Amino acid sequence: GMPTYLMFARYSPAGLQAVLETGMVARREAVAKGAEAAGGRLLRFDMLVGSTYDFMQLIEAPDAATVLAVMARAAASGSFDSDRQLIELCELEAFDAQRAAAGVTAYQPPASS
Questions:
Q1: At 77, is the secondary structure helix, strand, or coil?
Q2: What does the pLDDT profile of the chain (113 residues) look like in tens digits?
Q3: CA nearest neighbour of 41 among 66, 16, 24
Q4: Is the pTM of the predicted complex or chain greater than 0.70?
Q5: CB neighbours (10 Å) of residue 104?
Q6: First and final CA of the chain: distance in angstroms?
Q7: How many whole angstroms separate alpha carbon 90 and alpha carbon 107?
């Protein structure tokens, strides 16, 4: 199967107002359609109470780039607090990123004065 991604986000005031008007079932259906349009599948969509985030989603997708594209599209809508979004990479992609970072040897940090 495809890798899974756990995402957390917080609604902006306008986004929360829209959820209150349309309901959580409609929101879940919209998220599921977005995931499917990107080649993935929504596995879970849960509200979080008393947290930094308003909800979490567990999405199955072809790769992290697909998930980041979906998150960027959602963030551009203005419905989310851009400072309150988080994505968890699956273990294999985190290992791939670690291996890729080992090959980035040309980076030089800013010189201290």
A1: coil
A2: 888 888 888 999 998 998 899 988 998 998 899 899 999 999 999 999 888 889 899 999 998 888 888 888 888 888 888 666 666 666 666 667 677 777 777 777 787 65
A3: 66
A4: yes
A5: 7
A6: 51
A7: 26
